[in-house]
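Hi C.,

You asked whether I'd gotten around to modeling the 778-residue construct. I have! Everything is below, sequence then structure, no commentary in between.
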Amino acid sequence: MHNDHVARVALELKLTTNQVQATMTLLDDGDTVPFIARYRKEVTGSLDEVAITHIRDQIGRLRELDKRRETVLKSLEDQGKLTDELKEKVAAADAMTVLEDIYLPYRPKRRTRGTMAKEKGLEPLAKELFEQGECNPEGEAQQFVDPEKEVTSTDEALAGARDIISEWVNEDAEVRSDLRDLFEKKATIRSKLVKNKETDGAKYRDYFDWEELLAEAPSHRILAMRRAADEGIVTLHVLPEGQEAVTIIERRVVTGKGPASEQVRMAVADSYKRLLSTSMETEMRVASKRRADEEAIRVFADNLRELLMASPLGQKGVLAIDPGYRTGCKVVCLDPQGKLLHNDTIYPLEPQKRVEEASAKVKELVERFHVEAIAIGNGTGGREAHSFCRGIDFGRKVSVVIVNESGASVYSASENAREEFPDQDVTVRGSVSIGRRLMDPLAELVKIEPKSVGVGQYQHDVDQKALSGALDDVVMSCVNAVGVEVNMASKQLLKYVSGLSDRLAGNIVSQRNEHGPFASRQQLLEIAGMGPKTFEQAAGFLRIRESDNPLDASAVHPESYSIVEAMAGDMSCTVEDLMQKPDLRERIDLAGYVNEKVGIPTLTDIMSELSKPGRDPREPFEIFMYDETVHEISDLEIGMRLPGVVTNVTAFGAFVDIGVHQDGLVHVSQLADRFVKNPSDVVKVHQKVIVTVIGIEPERNRIALSMRSNTDSAPAAKSPIVKADRPRKEPSGLRGTGKEGRPRKKQKQSRRHNAKPVVKPANNPFADFFKTWKPADD
């Protein structure tokens, strides 16, 4: 690895060069991010997964730059153009754009106006004019008039020379650097309606005439405008004020005031209009798209993490219902391990409304299969099915929970579902997914493509490779943070364990099915394809709760078993005693077990794990209840305060399910009594909140909500938490700071040609709420 890369990444991430070098060595050796973060703290200086991922990605980009650099050098050498000076410039290029600017004059290109002018022998005239000395352009041009070369006049000769100069200006790395700086700071992104597209593009009407500084445009607006442009609804341009751009080029290129310099000025104007503006605009569109993609992917990844780490109900008998009106409600019964025991259909809702029959059936199933909780999908009919089940007297406590079913239909039609339930239809598979999602959201959601879980922002518009990579990182991080019970886990869950591939996950399941449960971690080495390196990466994240060795059910890595056994020996007790008796652990002096490979960080982790072996890091499960008086948008009134669940967090706010089949939007300006820059700082997916209804648009299924304390409201709603194992945390969005929100910076007045001033959203968008709600969101 290039030492300069290590130093550069260390500087950018504010880490030591040793940390970066050590981390990259581990990654290059095949170690995974979760493994390095959990079991190699001494090597990296206790870097977490975020830092390790940043190092991996930054070094990866620099290596891509190196590969491109090698390609450029080879091309220059093959062309016979590689001088020592050029080689130094290529070697010093620290960004892809800089490297491409250096290579641009030498890049093989199609036939252009400049190359055609050179073919006509006009390059000497261009050089003479570009020197901008004392010369008579018309007189010089007369020498190049040659009808045989299709140069019939001095005007044609001068025009051809200017074409050559225009391309020289376009290919000048310093000119391009100056313009890039201008575009980055002052370019505006502007969309204009395409004629006669008002009706087709109604959902994009906010962008029919929109302009703002590109540098300040949020990711969701950039992606929305690009989508509108891709669909032919608007035209889209990214340009700064034209004359300023030309002036910047002239400062760099025009060196005199004579007639020759005037020809160069004309060439500069042509170069910007015909070549540079287009080239820079393309660059800015690509760069802004990349920036918008990164933000959208970050938001999606954060939301996905919260969804995957949602509280599990645990191993309990569950009855799951996928609600439906005309076709009835599909019911399934699952054992505590999620195995399908029974399926049926009931008709408690309209139009059949066979309530008594359905009640008797549900009550009978609850008793027969020892059901402790009922899971109900939150789709059509979900609130009605929830009320129906809550009205049944089971004679004992049976929890009734509404479950977010986003993606259940995707799973039910997938190959995984068909393989598991070949004899069941999609409705049964979907109901099973709903029930299992209540028992363990993580184990069930990994069976669905991350893009289909419904917590993204413009996920279909962003770079799909980058999106998939980021989401896979999140899933792997969550799976390994929780740990996997190897004797129960599905192939889809196992494949996200550190070091395991899809094939190896399948081998684990096959061996388990053929030979019974694994009795120890060491037995995993018998699996086909499980070599020492893979075992090292995976073992600590795989749990075997029925093993004779109690450490097999913990996150203590097998490589550290000897340390724990030594501790137990020194305490004259068993490992089990050490795990069960805090007084024994308190007497251990960790310093006595430090060696060249294991330090205090790992020993501290071991002691923590011994105190709570295999502890699930997810929060305890809590049951949420909607307001029983509200079922449809028509039930809402301005000022109502209602309990809700955050279903999605975007760059412009959060969507909250209040139980009316349509999520409401809490705009970023309404999330708290203070200025909020990043909504995810205030709310998370699955967070329970209290919101106030401040806007309703039934005909368009839109609801505006607020979490601010100074909105007019009805009497306070009941707490959304009706059962908890600990005191309820107040939703972070309700915590006031006691300070006034920071005012936004005064809007800069920027003009492009004769365009109107840059438009920015109002400070409080709820004055005209629905104008700022971008309807193009997924």
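If it helps when you're writing up: The first strand starts at residue 188 and ends at 193.

Thanks,
B.
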